[in-house]
Amino acid sequence: xxxxxxQSEKITLNSYPRGFHLITDHILAALPSIRDVEVxxxxxxxxxxxxxxxxxxxxxPTVRQDMEAFINYSVNxxxxxxxxxxxxxxxxxxxIKSSILGCQLTIPVQQGRLALGTWQGIMLGEHRDHxxxxxxxxxxxxxxx
Length: 145
Description:
Layout: E1 3-13, E2 19-22, H1 24-30, E3 37-46, E4 51-57, H2 61-74, H3 91-101, E5 104-110, E6 113-114, E7 120-126, E8 134-144
Antiparallel strand pairs: 1-8, 2-7, 3-5, 3-8, 4-7, 5-6
């Protein structure tokens, strides 16, 4: 017999330094019931406008370093036309980076596991020098057995 299953959890991440950070293990630790979902979806919503979520390689840390280097190259902090600089020169660029990369992910769940590829992991992009704690709303839906 299968049952519809829904769960919503707020996951609070401790402060990270600026850059890209693997958070897959944090997400899974907050959702042990994922093991009971035969088929479903996990939706992650980051409740911040100066950080982002993305999926990318989880094995080689230089990928995260290169992601940070590229996004900083692409979104320059020292542009004179920024008006929204109340919280520092990294403020407006952080909002732009968040909009480019996005603040949500939807990941399939199959047989109690996230259906990520072999080298894929969930990353938090922290775009502020001092971003503070970050909160993610995780919504798990699916069929359990």
